[in-house]
Amino acid sequence: MALNEMMNRPVVKKELVAFMRDRLKRFPGELGELEKTANEKGVPIIPHETAVFLNMLLGQIKPKRILEIGAAIGFSGSLMAQHVGAEGHVTTIDRFEVMINNAKANFEKLGLADKVTLLEGDAAEILPTLEGPYDFIFMDSAKAKYYEFLPHCIRLLKKEGMLVIDDVFQGGTILDDEADVPKRVRKIHRRLNQLMDTVLDHPALETSLVPLGDGLLLIVKKEDFDFSYILDEIQAEKQNHA
């Protein structure tokens, strides 16, 4: 499993990050053990301060239907599954076999196999087939795909539902000029900026940015609308580069 280099480039002072990760209460039971093991092995999961924030947020929202894009080893999916109640459910997506196998094993270990459905494959192909509405969507997948996945998320999200997108600051490099960004991450840089430009001032969205981990973008859909033009834009771009 490849490590995310941005996990060790927090956007706040490293002393404050260390304080949050040390002082914020650990999760009990098997969930806490899963987080501890992942951190010891360097497995990319959401950092502790982000997990604690997400746990508190979900405790207030009390969603019944959750969609996650990017299952990884199942830590965040397991965390969210504990908030959906007896009738709720989490649907999560991943395309990497090693992640899928680990996530399934962890859902079983935590007794959550009946609360979580793991869809195997490319989210770009799976998202158009899903039917909403979802109360809460958590996106933590390929950063270059966030902009492309946004129209699907907005379509699937209920009115007044919340979309949370992880790792949007790229260690603060999102503020850099594209010419100063290494070529290998320029697409990520461009797409994240397109994402920000699209949602931050949109009249039908309420947004907030939280500097936890590598940055969280919180979006609440206030009105029903669609971003289908983004998919047309991306398709045209792909054809031009074919």
UniProtKB/TrEMBL annotation:
Gene: trmR
Binding site for S-adenosyl-L-methionine: I46, S76, D94, D122, A123, D140
HAMAP family, alphabetized: TrmR_methyltr
Pfam families tied to this protein: Methyltransf_3
InterPro entries in UniProt: Cation-dep_OMT (IPR050362), SAM-dependent_MTases_sf (IPR029063), SAM_O-MeTrfase (IPR002935), TrmR_methyltr (IPR043675)
Species assigned in the record: Trichococcus ilyis
Keyword terms, alphabetized: Methyltransferase, S-adenosyl-L-methionine, Transferase, tRNA processing
Catalytic activity: 5-hydroxyuridine(34) in tRNA + S-adenosyl-L-methionine = 5-methoxyuridine(34) in tRNA + S-adenosyl-L-homocysteine + H(+)
Stated name of the protein: tRNA 5-hydroxyuridine methyltransferase
Protein EC: 2.1.1.-
GO molecular function: O-methyltransferase activity; S-adenosylmethionine-dependent methyltransferase activity; tRNA (uridine) methyltransferase activity
Enzyme category, top tier: transferase
Top-level taxonomy: Bacteria, Bacillati, Bacillota, Bacilli, Lactobacillales
